[in-house]
Amino acid sequence: MHNGTSMKTKVRVVFAVAVCKLLRGFLHFLGRGGTNLPGKFALKICPEILSVAATGVRTIVVSGTNGKTTTCRLIEQGLNSAGVPCFANRSGANLLPGIVAEFIANANRNGMPSKAVSVIECDEATLKAVLSFITPEIVVLTNIFRDQLDRYGEVTHTLEKLSSAIEKTPNTLLCLNADDSLVASIAQALPNPCVFYGINAATESAPSDTHSDALYCICCKQRYAYTHRTYGHLGSFRCPNCGYKRSEPQISVDRIIETNRSKSIVDLNIRGQHTLQTIPLPALYNIYNYLAAISALDAFGVPEKDLKCVGAFGRMEHFSIGKGIALILVKNPAGFTQVIEYLSDIKEEYDLMCCLNDQEVDGTDISWIWDVPFEKLSQENDLKTVFVAGTRKEEMYLRLKHAGLDESKLQLVANTAQFIRETTKHPRPLFIVPTYTAMMQIRKQLAGMDSKKAFWE
C-alpha cells in the first residue's frame, strides 16, 4: 500500500484479504469453487480492495459476448510458454466479486500482488465497474451478439456499456475484432490505440440474414454490403452510404486450410509474416478466439515462437469417458449456431445432449432457443439420439420437435447426474451442450470420472 494510505484503510485491506482467503480456502476444502462469495465479503469490508490488489499488475482484460473464457486461457498459456508468470480467473467467474477474489488470491496479507501479470475475463455489464478500479494495459473485445435479453438488452446497449467503460482508460491498447462492425466502431468513438484481428477468408456457406444481429450501419443505418461473411454479422463489411467499413486487420487468418472435430489448420498472418498454424481447437468461432489471443500476446510483447494455443476448460473440453465426450458451453443463438455448424462436419455416428437451465447467470429468458437453427439437426443422418435435460428441458424438447427432429430420436433425461454416470457405457461419441450452470454441474462430475482438475485449479 502507498505511504499515504490511511491507517483505517490499511486495517480494512488486511481484514478483507484475510477473510477472503480463509473463506476461499474453506470453500475449496468443501469441494466448491469459492469464486464469488469471498469477493463479496471482501468488497463489503473494503470497497476499494481491488485498487490495492491490482497495484503494479500488468493486466489484460477480455470482454465481449462469446469466447471470453477460451480467449483468456489461450492468452494465459501463451504467457506461460513465454516464461511470464501470471494469474487468471480461469473458472470464468467474471463479475466484480469473482475478479476481486482472484486478485486477492494473488496478494499477500497486506494486499500487495505476488505475480505482476494478470489475464482477466470480464462480463460486458461489469467492465465499467472493474475499470473504475484498475487500468489494464490491454483490453480485448471478442464480439457483440444478442445475448441474455433480461440482463443485457439489445446489441447496441451492450456496445454502449463497453464504450462507456473503456472511456475511463484512454491509454489502454484495444484488440478489436475487425469483422464485427459493432466492436470495430469503438475505434472511431474512442482515442485508444487499436490493433485489429479478423478472418480474410470466406466460409463455405454464407450465413443467413435471419440470424444476423447487425445488418445495418452503426453510423447511418444503411444496410451493409459484404465482400465475404463468416457467421452472424461478422465479415468484411462496408456501408455503401457513409463509407464506414472494416479495418484491415494486422493479425489475420488468410486461408482456412482444414477443419475437423479436433483442430483447424490455417494460414496465419501476423503483420505480414505468414505461418501454417495448427489450432488444436475446432470450429470457426475458435479461430476468432485464437486470433484474439494472438493479438493480445503480440501486443504484450510475446515472441512469435511462443504464440502457442491449447484447449480451454468447459467451452470445448474433451473427456476420455466411454466413446468420448465433448462439453461445449452455449448461451445464445450465435454460439449455438456455430456448435451446430461444427456438428455438421462430423463424419461418424454421434449423440447429442442439450441441457438448458434458466438460473440468473444463464439468463431467465430462454426465448433465444427459437432463434437457433435446430432445423439443420433434422438433416443430420449421423446424429442418432438427442437427449434433453435441464430445468427447462420441456421447452427445449418442444423447440427440437418443432425443428423437425423425429420424436423417436428425442429423449427427456429425468436425472442428469445418473445419465452422466452411465456415459462410461455409452455406445457412441457424445456431445454435451449445456448452458452455464448446467455446464458447471456436469463438468464437475465428468472431471471426477476422468481424473481432471477442478475448474478453479
Layout: helices, strands, pairs:
Elements: H1 7-29, H2 37-45, H3 49-53, E1 58-63, H4 68-81, E2 87-88, H5 96-105, E3 117-121, H6 127-131, E4 138-141, H7 155-166, E5 173-177, H8 181-184, H9 186-189, E6 194-199, E7 225-229, E8 235-238, E9 251-259, E10 264-270, E11 273-279, H10 284-300, E12 317-319, E13 325-327, H11 333-344, E14 350-355, E15 383-389, H12 393-402, E16 410-412, H13 416-421, E17 430-434, H14 436-450
Parallel strand pairs: 1-3, 1-4, 2-3, 4-5, 5-6, 6-9, 13-17, 14-15, 14-17, 15-16
Antiparallel strand pairs: 7-8, 9-10, 10-11, 12-13
Notes on the structure:
This protein has helices at residues 7-29, 37-45, 49-53, 68-81, 96-105, 127-131, 155-166, 181-184, 186-189, 284-300, 333-344, 393-402, 416-421, 436-450; strands at residues 58-63, 87-88, 117-121, 138-141, 173-177, 194-199, 225-229, 235-238, 251-259, 264-270, 273-279, 317-319, 325-327, 350-355, 383-389, 410-412, 430-434. With 457 residues, the chain is of the alpha/beta class. The chain has 2 domains: 7-306, 3-Layer(aba) Sandwich (UDP-N-acetylmuramoyl-L-alanine:D-glutamate ligase), CATH 3.40.1190.10; 317-450, Protein-Tyrosine Phosphatase, Chain A (Alpha-Beta Complex), CATH 3.90.190.20. A hairpin with a 2-residue loop joins β10 and β11 (273-279). The longest helix is centred in the first third of the chain and has 23 residues, at 7-29.
